[in-house]
Amino acid sequence: MSGSEFGLIQSYFSIPGQSLLAQQDHPDIIQGIGDDCAILSPPADQHLLVSIDTLISGVHFPAQTSPQAVAHKALAVNLSDLAAMGAKPAWFTLALTLPDNNQNWLELFSQSLFKLASEYQIPLIGGDTTRGDLAVTIQIAGYVPPDSALKRSGAQAGDIIALTGALGAAAIGLDIALEQNRAHYQCLSQTRKKAAQLALNYPCPRIREGMIIRQYAHSALDISDGLLADLGHILSASEVGADVFLEYLPLSETLACLKPEQQWEKALTGGDDYELCFTLSEDKWQALKHAYPHFTAIGHITKSRKLRCLTADGKLFELQNRGYNHFD
Amino acid sequence: MSGSEFGLIQSYFSIPGQSLLAQQDHPDIIQGIGDDCAILSPPADQHLLVSIDTLISGVHFPAQTSPQAVAHKALAVNLSDLAAMGAKPAWFTLALTLPDNNQNWLELFSQSLFKLASEYQIPLIGGDTTRGDLAVTIQIAGYVPPDSALKRSGAQAGDIIALTGALGAAAIGLDIALEQNRAHYQCLSQTRKKAAQLALNYPCPRIREGMIIRQYAHSALDISDGLLADLGHILSASEVGADVFLEYLPLSETLACLKPEQQWEKALTGGDDYELCFTLSEDKWQALKHAYPHFTAIGHITKSRKLRCLTADGKLFELQNRGYNHFD
């Protein structure tokens, strides 16, 4: 890393990082930014979970997205990967590719990044700044007690399938940002439109929920590409099927202008919601629901190896599109 | 991560990874690719070192660089960050941005990546594939015994400054790749030209050397942006200066066509060599040199806070350019 790059990182990313790096809060971080590597001492009684995700301008977010939203989303989607496995955030590194050295953009980006990082008490421990089209790669790490990480592969026939929140708002936010399907959203108030755009740009990683669910669930993941596409990963990793009941889907209020079939389609295939989808036994579901009533059961795991979406009168619901895919 | 992306990673990156992931060799890796996060159990008696580096097509390597060279270099520069601190490689994650789903490119890229990974016994434990201009981000992790990582900040006045290998070949390789300064290289044989291009595209991370030097040195880093630019980081982190003697610089044979001043300039400012630069006491230098005679002393650390390059007759050598910088 060369002189002014290093200065760039130091000025925008190192100082707020230091304030987050109070030794009493993070005894696992021996040294953060400033050398060839960060030096860590992960607790011996925990497993370390790591994940890496890249967000590209024009692919993962519209090109006009604000620096604050880009920063929030880049960290939030990585936190969401930790949440999906029930981990507590530990630290992250940032590889930032920028078309130019725009001081104002960097200031807004770094403020937003550290705001979210501070909320989840996760320090930035290293980074790289390069020149090119805007792209943000974050590698995140978290801790779980040994053998307690939630995996995709643990679903069992008979499990309840449940969700942490409502679906569809981020997909509406994307339509609005891209000015698509305008006619559909004429009934939406400005407040609801704003809420949809916030859902797209400022997803809330379900860290606390993941750490609770970890004690109950057989399997889990986060919904980044749409419920059906992501639930499909649980099904294939666990070698099972699922019946999802449309009438139970927790629909975002931003979907209210759409016809029922369109609402279901958005909820089933819309990406970027970052809710958790998890499966657990009927008994555990009753216990979890009693303690945390805000989760929603939407169906159950079957032996069939098929993923079926069923209407209230038991009919199969057929979809046009099953989820977002960069390389289709 | 969506369906076919996942398939893409599975087909090119997961299978060779699995063969690397023999449990007896990597008891610290509980689960690699295939879930939201990888699950690790770092040894309790080691510190964990992490670093992240991005390589962008047209910035860090010429756009026509082969997929094999891109893969090698992306992993090698990250391994070099571990080498700089004396760490043993542990694992890495890959965030790959590709303009299209080019099967042939991916096959060549992944083969080369796993060839180098296998050489250093470092498994790939997670990844992300996105669409965009070609960029490769690798996050790497390694282990060192507690409190033994080599830092930039440990140099002391009186220390010998030493290098692991020769300088300048990669800079000549870049000139050749970009067809710059052609007239300078007319005396170079085709074999030497080839060697210069190999130095640029296939740097050798000094992992073994770093683990040896760790037992002797006060400070170290790897030379990615040119000796002077990188040595400058040691000086500023350690609050010291340095005298570098041009006559002692280990010059690559590919520099032979150039005038002496041009050779020194290339050796001092050419990037991409990925040799280690380290400082150690005179006593330790004598011991290290006795055991490993292939390192070269090039100068010493001073109290002055100045970095001076001196000719054999004690004159100051002034440079046009002090190193590579993405944001200058």
Structural overview:
The structure is a homodimer of 328-residue chains. The first copy, chain A, is an alpha+beta fold and 328 residues long. Chain A has 2 domains: 142 residues, PurM-like, N-terminal domain (60s Ribosomal Protein L30, Chain: A, 2-Layer Sandwich), CATH 3.30.1330.10; 159 residues, Alpha-Beta Complex (Phosphoribosyl-aminoimidazole Synthetase, Chain A, domain 2), CATH 3.90.650. Chain A is 34% helix and 23% strand. Chain A has 9 helices and 12 strands. The first copy, chain A, has a 6-stranded mixed sheet with strand order 8-10-7-11-9-12, sandwiched between helices. In chain A, a hairpin with a 6-residue loop joins strand 1 and strand 2. Chain A is globular. The C terminus of chain A is likely disordered. Strand 2 of chain A pairs antiparallel with strand 3 of chain B.
Give a brief outline of the structure.
The structure is a homodimer of 328-residue chains. The first copy, chain A, has 328 residues and is an alpha+beta fold.
**Structural class estimated from helices and strands of chain A:** alpha+beta
N-to-C terminal Cα separation of chain A, in Å? Answer: 36 Å
Percent strand of chain A equals: 15-25%
Q: Using the CA coordinates, give the radius of gyration of chain A.
A: 20 Å
How many structural domains in the coordinates of chain A? 2
CATH topology annotation of the largest domain in chain A: Phosphoribosyl-aminoimidazole Synthetase, Chain A, domain 2
In CATH, the homologous superfamily of the largest domain in chain A goes by the name PurM-like C-terminal domain
Question: Strand order, biggest sheet of chain A?
Answer: 8-10-7-11-9-12
Oligomer: homodimer
Assign the CATH architecture of the largest domain in chain A: Alpha-Beta Complex
Q: How many separate helices of chain A? A: 9
Largest interface: A-B, 76 and 76 residues
- Please identify the top-level CATH class of the largest domain in chain A: Alpha Beta
Work out the number of β strands of chain A. 12
Main sheet record of chain A: 6 strands, mixed
Low-pLDDT residue spans of chain A: 15-21, 324-328
Shape of chain A: globular
